[in-house]
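Q: Given only this backbone (222 positions), what sequence would you predict?
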């Protein structure tokens, strides 16, 4: 599969749109961060300055941010899936590490997130939806001073063969401690890849059957 060769600096909005709608988003990010791409897509300013963590990680050849890309096919229409996800207060229903998400404005564009962390700690941050395409895309970015700097998007596209909707989540975050230790990969008790994959599978169960099978064998959800 051919990768996007255009540089984000040449035509930011068009190249960012191509990257977000590409089959392999992480590979097409190349030298860019997801935060830079989403900023270009939304005309949102993003700082190019590096913090201490970013400089330290680069010095030892590591990326300070963790980027995860996961896709699942769900036998439901894109509009139905988008509408459920767009009400961000629904996310803790299938995202096990989230304690709550509350809207901070009537449009639901700015929200407050609370998540579980190891040793019974919690982390909190505010996030803003930076791109909203009904039935297709929701992109968000944490606001300044977030305890965990993060951004991401969820994309809904018709699956081939009329098999429902392909749901892709791409998430980038910079956890405390950065990528310098293995501990960051288990911030929420499992690797980021496993975590997002499990959450998408729970979303699939919920949307296709109306309930989520728990480890105890008892369903939850509506």
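A: Predicted residues:
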């Amino acid at each position: 599969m051919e990768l996007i060769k255009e540089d984000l600096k040449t035509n930011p909005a068009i190249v960012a749109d191509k990257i977000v709608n590409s089959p392999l988003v992480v590979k097409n990010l190349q030298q860019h961060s997801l935060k830079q791409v989403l900023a270009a897509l939304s005309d949102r300013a993003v700082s190019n300055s590096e913090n201490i963590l970013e400089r330290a990680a680069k010095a030892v050849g590591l990326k300070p941010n963790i980027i995860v890309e996961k896709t699942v096919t769900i036998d439901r229409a894109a509009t139905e899936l988008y509408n459920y996800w767009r009400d961000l207060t629904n996310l803790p229903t299938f995202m096990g590490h989230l304690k709550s998400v509350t809207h901070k404005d009537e449009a639901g564009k700015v929200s407050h997130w609370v998540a579980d962390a190891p040793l019974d700690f919690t982390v909190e941050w505010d996030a803003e939806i930076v791109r909203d395409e009904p039935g297709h895309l929701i992109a968000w970015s944490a606001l300044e001073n977030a305890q965990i700097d993060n951004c991401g998007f969820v994309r809904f596209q018709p699956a081939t063969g009329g098999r429902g909707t392909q749901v892709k989540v791409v998430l980038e975050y910079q956890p405390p401690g950065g990528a310098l230790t293995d501990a960051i990969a288990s911030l929420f008790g499992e690797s980021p890849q496993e975590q997002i994959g499990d959450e998408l599978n729970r979303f699939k169960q919920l949307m296709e059957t109306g309930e989520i099978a728990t480890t105890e064998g008892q369903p939850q959800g509506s």
